[in-house]
Amino acid sequence: MIRVAVLALALGLPAAALAQVAEPDDFRMDDYRAPVPPTLAGATVVGPEAAHVLWQSGQVAFVDVLPRAPKPPNLPVGTIWRDKPRFSIPGAIWLPNVGYGAIAEVTHAYFRAGLDKATRGDLAHPVLFFCLEDCWMSWNAAKRALDYGYTTVYWFPEGTDGWAFLDYPLTQVEAEPGEPVAQ
Predict the structure, then answer these.
(1) pTM as predicted
(2) What is the CATH number of the domain that holds 39?
């Protein structure tokens, strides 16, 4: 809420002009980099400080869901393609492309397998989802995990942007093997 007030002040607007986003009934289907709601029914929303405490405890599985752009299909022969490196929270598992509003069955399977690995198959194991600030991918992924039956779900809306802002450590991570092609 402080960030909203600061942003409003910086833009010369009253804070009410930047109204909060309402939590939708279903998954967000488009415009994934946009302001997110302050809530997610069934999940606990945490800020950077609380996420850091959970990370330090070593008892919570951290799941990064930042999407990865696919390799363009019509690159000239001989073009070298390098995926953009992902710097994430140390110890997090990176499951790209699982936060879209509608995902293919192969993506559901990839997501479930990643969650199973991160939680050792325990639906009660605490799991925290994040991406970047104002990224609906983490909101969708956390909502989907709740639908899968996970009972202790944390959502960290500021993601690695909020984490880095407080100078918490980041490390380069690789996506979990078996990643489906982006939606």
Answers:
(1) 0.86
(2) 3.40.250.10
Range of the domain at 45: 28-173
What the block records as the tokens of 42 is: 């069934």
pLDDT of the chain, 183 residues: tens digit per residue: 445 444 444 545 444 445 689 999 999 999 999 999 999 999 999 999 999 999 999 999 999 999 987 777 888 888 887 878 999 999 999 999 999 999 999 999 999 999 999 999 999 999 999 999 999 999 999 999 999 999 999 999 999 999 999 999 999 999 999 888 654
Sign of the dihedral defined by the CA atoms of residues 30, 34, 35, 41, in that order: positive
Q: What type of residue sits at position 9? A: L
